[in-house]
Write a structure and sequence with these properties.
- The complex is a heterotrimer of chains A (323), B (366) and C (706).
- Chain A is an alpha/beta fold and 323 residues long.
- Chain A has 12 helices and 9 strands.
- Helix content of chain A is 42%, strand content 19%.
- By secondary structure, chain B is an alpha/beta fold.
- Chain B has 2 domains: 227 residues, P-loop containing nucleotide triphosphate hydrolases (Rossmann fold); 82 residues, CBS domain Like (Alpha-Beta Complex).
- The N terminus and C terminus of chain B are likely disordered.
- Classes of the chains: A alpha/beta (323), B alpha/beta (366), C mainly alpha (706).
- Chains A and C meet through helix 1, helix 3 and helix 7 of A and helix 5, helix 14, helix 15, helix 17 and helix 18 of C.
Amino acid sequence: MSRAPIRTSLIAGVGVLGLALSACAAETDGDSASGGDGGGAKEVTIAVPSWVGAQANAAVAAHILEEEMDVKVDIKQMDEPVAFDALHGGKADAILEDWGGVPKKEELYVEDKKTVVEGGDLGVTGHIGWFVPKYFADENPEVLDYENLNDFVDDFKTSESGDKGQFIGAAPSYTTYDKHLIKNHDLDYKILPTGSEAAQLKEIQRLYEAEEPFLTYWWDPQWMNAQIEMVEVELPEYTEGCNEPAEKTECGYDTLMLQKYFNADFAENGGEAAEFLKNFQWSTEDQNEVASMIAGEGMAEEDAAAEWAAEHEDVWKAWLPKS
Amino acid sequence: MSTTEHAQGAATEPVFAVRNLWKVFGPKAERIPGDARLGELSAAELTARTGCTAAVRDVSFDVHPGEVFVVMGLSGSGKSTLVRCLTRLIEPTSGTLHIDGEDVRAMDKSRLRELRRHRAAMVFQHFGLLPHRTVLDNIAYGLEIQGMGKVERRARAEEMLAKVGLDRLGDRRPGQLSGGQQQRVGLARALATDPEVLLFDEPFSALDPLIRRDMQDEVVRLHREEGRTMVFITHDLSEALRLGDRIALMRDGGVVQLGTPEEIVAAPADDYVRDFVRDVPREQVITLRRAMRPAVGDEAITGAVLPPSTRVVDAIEAVARTGEHVRVGEDGNVLGVVCHSRLLSVVAGLDSGHGGEPRGEKAGAI
Amino acid sequence: MSAPALEKRDERPSEPPTETVSAKEPAARPPGPAAALAARLAARPSALLVALAAVLVLVSAFVTGSGAWPAGMTVDVTTPLEDLNAWLVENRDSHWLFLYFLLHVSNNAELAVDSLIGLFEGLGWVGVTLLGTVLAWYAGGAGLRPRALRTAATALGVFLVVGVLGMWDPTMETLALMTVAVAAAALLGLLLGIAAGLSDACDRALRPVFDLMQVMPAFAYLLPFVLLFDIGVPSALVATVIYAAPPMARLTSLGLRGADPAALEASASLGASPWQRLRTARLPLARKEMLLGLNQTIMMCLSMVVLASVVGSGGLGDVIYRALGKVNVGQALTAGIAIVLVAVLLDRTTAAAGARLEESETRAPSPAAEAPRKAGTRPLLRSPFTVSPGRFARLRGWPSWLGLGALAAVLSALGPRLGEEEWPREWTFRITPYVNDATEWIEKSLGSGVPVVGGTLTWAEGVTNGVLNPLRDGLNATPWWALLVLVAALGWAVGRWRAALTASAALGVIGVLGLWTKSMDTLSQVLVALVITLLLGFAVGVLAARVPRVERWLRPLLDTMQTMPQFVYLIPVIALFSVGRMAGIAAAVVFVLPAVIRITAQGVRQSDPAALEAARSMGATTRQQLLQVQLPLARRSLLVAVNQGVVLVLSMVVIAGMVGGGALGIDVITGLSKGDLALGLPAGAAIVCLGVLLDRLTQPARTEGR
């Protein structure tokens, strides 16, 4: 007998809730016409991968867009491949830092479908390589030549790698040829599949603090470089096309200018916001400064961006659209 | 252990001596027994006032060697709690408790274990058999706990199996037996340790009436053969009357009346007990010792002689056949007589209710 | 080098309950252990079979030395999957399937979530807190009853703490996504559950589907969903619904099937049509189970919402994921606490609603009726037919709902004017630095150099060298056909033909997919994680069952372990165990342990009290009670614990891949993050196959009633 009142009250509740919902939906619809109708977007969505450098880019861009230009910024976390899909579909307007990890998608969307456009250099130089900690390199300078790596197998041995040396691998979404390099140079090493950047960073932090020897895939810019000193192991020099096909790769990694990409529609109709992001360009040092504030000191992203912006007005003034 | 002829109520030391035993469940239970004002409250009032339930309140009794002591009461009267207090399966709240003169409440863990292993064994309402063991291993379980070797305990278990009439079923699992058979296993398990006392906690109430009857006969037989002391919990009055040498009737945790079946039926202590025994066929419980009156005139000379332990129902037959009174005699003395009116008043229940009526045995002594 | 592991596996199946050799004829020379073993085995054909298969495995492993699945017998699934992948990418803007169906699904999902976020923003933090508190209060039965007040206070506390932690915005996003996901999952689960509850054919057909939905790692199908539904909210939502619907469906079906047959008969005898019967008798009778299902669905939605942040769904998962990139445990934990709090809020609210339901079905609570239960005696017999105080419930129901609606309307109108959309920033308190200090201290002091025991890093290395490596190498050294025989024999011993066939088919599929070696690696990790979990879980579970105080202390800890997103403790786990398979195993143990402990404790506690009392009355020691009575009687529960352990450990394979577990887990992750369907999906399928295999081998057969 108590069922009837429960049901009616449910209906009533849902009804009221529905009313409120639709009212709000109507209200929000007005200002959320995002991404590029007409003269300038009021809201921009930036896709950000999980690493801190990229978060620094987005945080600074968002800070200035919101404070100086009154554009609302939505920062969405997603990995490179997904981010390209998002750019293509209009779910995101911009990627500020691309390492060229998904050439196939890049080609499909930029060349074939023309839904994504290049946005120019970020200004930061990216470099990937094989690294050992400085304390180890200082004692064993020979390790810095890849041809001698087989002599150090015993130093790099762990329970995971068995009787081979351990090579700390990259997170799965990162660009690597390590598997092929190890095979093609007959190196007696086994890759430790770290599975995520966080895992790799933590492992390196741990080993570094314990001053144990290790050999790892590593890159710059990387906020942790402010805390630890690493030395690169020399691989055969990169030449154009030496890593194609990947299976035949014998050379080291290229040094690349990190790229920005925009949704085509946003690039065209995004107005001042789009212009600002096209102008956005800073140096590796700038990025590292913000990144180590975020990661090293544990500051909130917004706070780190605000602090950097306060000190580097000259840099970001140049990004503002000239109107 | 096999001597049966302990005179009841004799000066021998009681097996269990229980004095002012309390078991209170609930917050700060230990304050209840000492508090006279709380002790007077009814069960419902006590719960409302303190949040505590007194499952056993101020119970005292002795269990004599060789007797079957029945504790009976309705469900919730505290009888199952009481029997568990005897071996401290439930820890009493206060009171004293002795077994063969030894203070049970003062026992340490190992001594208590000793008591449970060798001196008292229990039979449970829901059997408590281990479904993953064979019947034989179930019976031997108590011996296994004691640390007896496998061969020896199995042999002993076989013996017990035969004793309860389950030979050839030793390899089965409890789940494959009927309820009655399972309880026989429970009984055999208790007997296997050759305990001084057997404790029965409503052992037959989960069984069908016919099987229950069988099992009661089994207990009577065992008692006759071995004379083991038994404490028997039941909510079934006829079972209590059938088995008990003495009965303690419990209500709301307290003992309302303690006496032989005959005393309880013939002289209920209060209305509650009277209500309880109302439907009992009195002629089957009350004996001539209670029904007789002093002989008048020459009555002491004529008529058939029956012993005072004869039940009224049997005397009726004799009186009906001869048409005259019957003499009640013992050791050549005439204690008194019963005539048909006397017997009829027993059947009609007119003799009871006068607790103060002089007892026949005293009136007609020698 | 592979010998130790193989010997270990040989012993396990052939070891009967530990008893010494039967000594019925003491005169005869005691038979050698081997002869006794043989005699024992001969008496039990299934054990004999398993022992023979184990011997075969041992011998063949030594003879051949390597036995991966032959490459010739694999089927190439990569090419068609790559084609599919390419087709999806190519056609998603033009094909009718997308334009007229999937696009609408996405848009509606997104709209619903956005509207909710809009509503929350419109209400402002004051409004949301008030509304949530009132809702919880109503769910708890309204009025001034202790339960209603307790539930309301919980809700109020949760909202305030979330605000103080500075997690207000992401929590609102998560709540919005959750609300829509729970609604969709519950509806889907309800429909499937009704189908399975009413029709045996449906039940048979849906059962494996539910299994698949739960065991298939979400990472494996998140990718296709991104392609089908677009990134962000829609695919997160669909993935969540798929993951979270099965419990609702299962429990609904269970409730429908378990309904009191007498009541159903009565309703049929009154001439009710099937629809009337469903509506008036069967569904109401299954309400309790359905509510339990809803509760579980909510919890699973919550764990999935975090994972879904990988595809850009935002919310608290996003915060955790970003904190990971900075190796900032404190930040991740802050968001993790918010998740746990949301879980507590939703769990308590649904539980209170459930308790209210139960109460209205039985009787009004009176202090007199509750007291004896508290006092430790048996509860009074409760009749399900006593009339509930419906009139009061009715009176209380209406105004509170109306009031609630009015409150929502007023608050959303006023909210923006109050100017407090977001939690004021100065009212937040960052626990991050403290947590990080604490974590660092733990990492430093437990990692290595602990006197005597050596520290976690040393253990990790020991287990890896001593158990994991030999086990993996042993599995890989064993010829595939010998393993198939062993699995079939084990399956036969457990569940006769059906189990033998299913289990070996599952193993076969792994081979055919070409993932044999990786699967053996994963299998070795799963087995080790399982053994560690079971050892710990049984020990703690038994302790909890026997010592009520331990259980009281454990409960909040277990709740937290189960609801805390795994991402949060990945970093400490790495610090303590170093990147590698042991880190993955440790994470899995943390995640699975609560379930095993709970099932064990419950099983031990619920073992027939009469049997335990009988043992006590005979003077059994604690040890004897445990070994001879409680554990044997709890055998079924322990088997359930093993089975649940298997399923849960497998669900952690992918997470383990994120901290160096490698093998199948990393393939799934790589597949997702590289957008490679052909890599992720087969690896996901292999994990499912391992799940089916282990599930069948640990599921107690129904025929086994000896």
